[in-house]
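Quick question, first post here. What does this chain look like in 3D?
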Amino acid sequence: MIALLLATYYGPPRDSPLPRLGRVRVGWLGSYSDLYFHQRATVVLRTSGEDIVPILLRPATAKDAEPIKSLIRRVHINPFGLVWQRFLMAEDAGEIVGCVQVKPHKDSVRELASLAVVPERQGQGVGALLVNALLTHERGELYLMCREQMASYYARFGFALVEPAAIPRSLKPFYRIGRFITRLFGSERIAIMRRASERIDP
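> Answer (accepted):
Ran it through. Tokens below.
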């Protein structure tokens, strides 16, 4: 089992008004309260084989636009709405190993989308690192669409299944198209999940 040991925050440039925070200790699926999209962090993973694997989490740049599209196509998920400015990236030794975004919709719904990890790195915790970092920034209500077999995975992050009647208007067309495609090809059904906004005490 992969265990998360340490995250080292590199912080913004010296001329940035943002504070430099030094080292941030986190646990597996722990707190990422000091990691936001304008910051960079190296997360160190220890695998079951005791290998040390540093993963850089960073906001996407214009150079990531094509690699994002390539990775999304490679893992066969929704290839639309891939605006690079909304993405958080995961790198290992300069190679992109994963990405995720939050996609805004016209009715103010926000969707966790495009979570992708290169096939050879799946099952190693990269996706969980991306989701946890994103959820630290996104404290409001958040939706996602996934295959039903992935519902238990996202439940770990506080998402719960949404009944069809309660699906937001902006997501219903995508849900219907997804259900039609899965029926047409006999593949697994699509589900909509929701994570409630976090309560922030005054």
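The first strand starts at residue 3 and ends at 9.
The two ends are 38 Å apart (CA to CA).
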